[in-house]
Amino acid sequence: MRPLSELARPEPALEQLAVNTLRFLAVDAVEKAKSGHPGMPMGMADAAFVIWTRFLRYQPHDPAWPDRDRFVLSAGHGSMLLYALLHLSGYDLPLEELQRFRQLGSRTPGHPELGLAPGVETTTGPLGQGFGNGVGMALASRMLSARFGSGSFSPASYRVFGIVSDGDLMEGVASEAASLAGHWGLGNLVYLYDDNHITIEGDTALAFTEDVARRLEAYGWQVGRVDPYDRPELEAAIGRAVAETGRPSLVITRSHIAYGAPKKQDTREAHGEPLGAEEVAAAKRALGWPESPPFLIPPEVRVLFAERAAGLRPEYDAWHERMKRWQADQPQQAGLWDAMMEKRVPKDLFDQLVAAAPREAGATRNHGNVVLQRAAVLVPSLAGGSADLEPSTRTRIKDSPSVQRGAYGGRNFHFGIREHGMASILNGLAVAGGFIPYGSSFLVFTDYARPAIRLSALMKQQVLWVFTHDSVFLGEDGPTHQPIEHLTALRAIPNLLVVRPADGIETAAAWALGLERRDGPTLMALTRQNLPAIERPGFEPAALRRGGYVLREHRAGEAVTLIATGSEVWLALEASRRLDEAGLPARVVSMPAPQFFLRQDRAWREAVLPPRGRRVSLEAGATDYWHRIVGPEGLAIGIDGYGESAPYAQLQEHFGFTPEKVAARVLEWARGK
């Protein structure tokens, strides 16, 4: 890495011109859109300029360079600051896209979104999430260095820089992530705090008077303070943060929202409203900027940013040369690197995991542990952990150590009791590249993780969520720990595949689907209680790829179809036999992933669920979702209230989830038709 002294430093007047260019690109875009947040970009333009021109290593022609430094705008409402930086730095983001800010189909939406504009490392906006993502990115860098660093070269030794706001630091997810970053000693993480004292309601003193510096210091961070408008001092402060390799760093900048706007500087109106034409003109006059034309970019500013990118090119080229030598000297390591960067899985992964699946009775969390061990051998990118619940979720990779401060070579994480932080960090690991992360807890605690789960679905990231204790049948812990509405709520998240397997084979299929799927996250809901082994005469494992399939067929008479998931599949099988004996022919469909089933071709769906057949769903949770499967004339058996505290066998009897009670209810319903 080139020392700062070797980087050409522009003249102060040119620096100021560049900083004001960033300011007014943001102001003009917000004004044209008649929507947006001009205050943050105006207040933090100097700080962003220093990061991008003095510290950040990037190449606009290769936005996916593995060793690039990451920049996270956790304060995503200031998105125009990032878009302006990307445009000026030479990324494929034309000026026309800045002029289409917040418009339908533009690459410059109101908050940065992964995949729309090159150089945007993660989707931010929900405050605190970017903070956690950056922790995950920094952790990924340390883990890759531990696996692949040899001698003086590591193919991944990148750093993470970011800008965080008051709102980020108020959200609880940031506290959880900050605590873990300090615990892990992530000295490659540097955040600048936009301490502008303003939120939507007014001065932060209304609700936020804590000493942020002391809080972060208590978490194990290095904390500094600097005037964000004194660029030499700002550079020195960030330099001290970069030099501290054993602790993450927070540089507090007492900034001014809407810096330079005569009437709106330091006001809440500057947070989420355009300045207005009169105030825009006044701000431009105050900072010596031409009032027209809008979206002005002086040629010398373009040259400055182009020279910065060109100045970084030798380091980029040197990395590639050293990478070639490393690949030649370390072919086995180089092969592993390629496999991890591609998140490669074997072509026959599905078959291998199904073959390794337990066939005997047991809890699906235990079956999942067996499958996980085989998956970890086959997929080197796989790494994960739990929110202090691994003895219950059974999600530890047995032949690997845990990741701890100074020891980043393992594949197991201990997140502590921090579901929200865990989930945001896993998203950061996913977008950083090289890892397929998984996280686990109890299903009811998706309430804590759901914001980040939604973002992994929005960003189309391959994150595996392993949640156990999936129904009231976890037993004596009672209603606080017994999920009811959770499966319905999770299935409502677009692009999140929810799988609730019934036995070892279905659990193996769930893992395989999640590891093969590249365009979104997969969530597994597993049992605490033991389940009987399921007989599968003539079963074709390929059916597991369809989300739902016929487990027990009945050819005699007009049969009712029992559709079940997870722990209710064996129950449906037992109830179907009793229904046969009572004179009502019954089929059984196992539907571990109803969302997936509904996306299958019509022929498959109608073969599994005949269009005019009578349908009954059976799941120990809320029934809302199942009405779309069974139809208005069907019967949805579930639990639409809260649970009870008792041994699970008593709960099965209490809630009517026994073969006898299910059969009796179906008979009563069918005879009333």
UniProtKB/TrEMBL annotation:
The UniProt keyword set, sorted, is:
Calcium, Magnesium, Metal-binding, Thiamine pyrophosphate, Transferase
Q: How is the cofactor bound?
A: Binds 1 Mg(2+) ion per subunit. Can also utilize other divalent metal cations, such as Ca(2+), Mn(2+) and Co(2+). Binds 1 thiamine pyrophosphate per subunit. During the reaction, the substrate forms a covalent intermediate with the cofactor.
* UniProt binding sites for substrate: 37, 271, 365, 392, 469, 477, 481, 528
Q: Known SUPFAM superfamilies for this protein?
A: Thiamin diphosphate-binding fold (THDP-binding), TK C-terminal domain-like
Which EC numbers does the record give?
A: 2.2.1.1
Q: Where is this site: Important for catalytic activity?
A: 37, 271
Give the Gene Ontology MF terms in alphabetical order. Answer: metal ion binding; transketolase activity
Per UniProt, thiamine diphosphate binds at 77, 125-127, 167, 196, 271, 445
Q: Does the keyword Zinc apply?
A: no
Q: Tell me the PROSITE patterns matching this sequence.
A: TRANSKETOLASE_1, TRANSKETOLASE_2
The active-site annotation reads 419
Q: Which GO terms describe its biological process?
A: pentose-phosphate shunt
Required co-factor(s) are: Mg(2+); Ca(2+); Mn(2+); Co(2+)
Summarize where Mg(2+) binds, as residue positions.
166, 196, 198
Every Transketolase-like pyrimidine-binding domain range: 362-533
Q: Which Gene3D superfamilies match?
A: 3.40.50.920, 3.40.50.970
Q: What PANTHER family does the entry give?
A: TRANSKETOLASE, TRANSKETOLASE 1-RELATED
UniProt lists the family membership as follows: Belongs to the transketolase family.
Role played? Catalyzes the transfer of a two-carbon ketol group from a ketose donor to an aldose acceptor, via a covalent intermediate with the cofactor thiamine pyrophosphate.
Q: How does it assemble?
A: Homodimer.
What is the designated name of this protein?
Answer: Transketolase
